[in-house]
Design a protein that fits this description.
Length: 132
């Protein structure tokens, strides 16, 4: 999986590590649901892990951010290539993963492929791991 033209800097990665370290080490961190809720079962853990793997790429996060910034209209590959400065094939690769993961929807309109954010999927993933 190539993300060369869309890669992030070492500074961005270091910043992300600090954020993650701060969240996971916070004393008020808890899984979604009540404190008395049972730990994740295997199927739920596998589904959550798959969703997080889909999100665990800087290019895909940038794509989601761009699509979410334009909620009133769909986004095309051409727009993303221009906004991200990456190859069309790279954008298409990451879009396919996001669609397959349920984070974006895809529809065809003539020769255009149109992408929209599937906000409920993103909210469900976020709610599963949010700190309290």
């Amino acid at each position: 999986m190539s993300s060369a033209p869309c890669s992030t800097s070492a500074r961005s990665c270091a910043s992300a590590r600090r954020v993650v370290a701060g969240v996971t080490s916070a004393p008020d961190f808890a899984w979604a649901g009540a404190a008395s809720e049972a730990p994740l079962d295997a199927a739920t853990a596998n589904a959550l892990a798959h969703g997080l793997q889909v999100l665990a790429d800087p290019t895909r996060l940038r794509i989601l951010s761009h699509v979410a910034a334009n909620p009133d209209r769909p986004t095309t590959v051409t727009e993303l290539v221009s906004a991200l400065g990456c190859a069309q094939s790279t954008a298409s690769h990451h879009l396919r993963i996001l669609v397959d993961g349920g984070y974006l929807t895809y529809e065809r309109s003539g020769t255009w492929g149109l992408y929209r954010l599937e906000a409920t999927k993103l909210q469900a993933t976020s709610a599963s791991i949010r700190p309290r």
